[in-house]
């Protein structure tokens, strides 16, 4: 799209549930993956990779509304204002258990807040982000450049999420693998940050893009 968003446009108080979705290599002016106007989608197990915009929100453009985003991986997108996420017109989004990393250009901020009050917690955001349980260390993707956004051994995102934030009934990750497992060896099964669970016992987390 040369105007608007690249994949999904929400407006007029839309409130869809979007679970287990990949947004890859879309192109637009605003919102490479999704643009949300005065809407409140509930999104879980989301991957946004390789999307690009000429203006705002490399992956997500949010104008008003109260989106809820849980266990998303937003990586390798390109934008101007908000290489990953743009927030304008006073939205109140909630992001939990989410990884935002490797969006370009790196000199610009991944989350651009023109106005609004985001609640971001138990998430890994490049450059850092205020909020409970947030991290800023390299998530150690298997291979970001090749589109393999699974977590490698030793990733700080393993077992670092908030179980209570995971929507009811969402017991698997984006690849259909077990979501609540012990990934760091402390014998306490805890959800990971991001769309993929490290060391899951079923399913496959292989992603091929391009």
Question: What does this protein look like?
Answer:
The strands form four sheets. Strands 2, 5, 8, 10, 11, 13 and 14 form a seven-stranded parallel β-sheet that branches. With 210 residues, the chain is mainly β. The C terminus is likely disordered.
pLDDT < 50 runs, ≥5 residues: 202-210
Oligomeric composition of the shown chains: single chain
The percent range for helix content is under 10%
Approximate shape? globular
Radius of gyration: 15 Å
Distance between the termini: 19 Å
Count of DSSP-assigned helices: 0
The largest β sheet comes out as:
7 strands, parallel
What is the beta-strand fraction? 25-35%
Write down how many β-strands occur, each being a DSSP E stretch of 2 or more residues: 16
Average pLDDT over all residues? 93
The helix-and-strand class reads mainly beta
Write the element-wise H/E pattern from the N-terminal end onward. EEEEEEEEEEEEEEEE
Q: Topology of this structure?
A:
Elements (H helix, E strand, L loop, with lengths): L7 E3 L6 E8 L2 E4 L3 E4 L4 E8 L2 E5 L3 E4 L4 E8 L9 E4 L5 E3 L2 E3 L9 E3 L5 E3 L2 E2 L15 E3 L4 E4 L59
């Amino acid at each position: 799209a040369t105007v608007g968003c690249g994949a999904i446009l929400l407006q007029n108080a839309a409130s869809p549930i979007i679970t287990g979705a990949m947004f890859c290599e879309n192109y637009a002016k605003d919102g490479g993956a999704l643009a949300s106007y005065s809407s409140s989608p509930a999104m879980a197990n989301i991957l946004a990779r390789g999307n690009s915009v000429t203006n705002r929100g490399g992956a997500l453009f949010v104008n008003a509304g109260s989106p809820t985003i849980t266990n998303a991986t937003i990586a390798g997108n390109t934008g101007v204002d908000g290489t990953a996420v743009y927030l304008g017109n006073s939205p109140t989004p909630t992001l939990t258990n989410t990884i935002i990393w490797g969006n370009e250009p790196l000199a610009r901020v991944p989350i651009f807040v023109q106005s609004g009050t985001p609640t971001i917690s138990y998430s890994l955001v490049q450059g850092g982000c205020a909020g409970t349980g947030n991290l800023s260390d390299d998530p150690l993707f298997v291979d970001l450049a090749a589109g393999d956004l699974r977590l490698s051994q030793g990733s700080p995102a393993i077992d670092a999420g908030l179980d209570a934030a995971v929507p009811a009934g969402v017991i698997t990750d984006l690849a259909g693998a077990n979501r609540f497992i012990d990934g760091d060896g402390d014998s306490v099964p805890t959800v990971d940050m991001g769309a993929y669970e490290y060391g899951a016992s079923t399913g496959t987390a292989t992603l091929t893009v391009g």
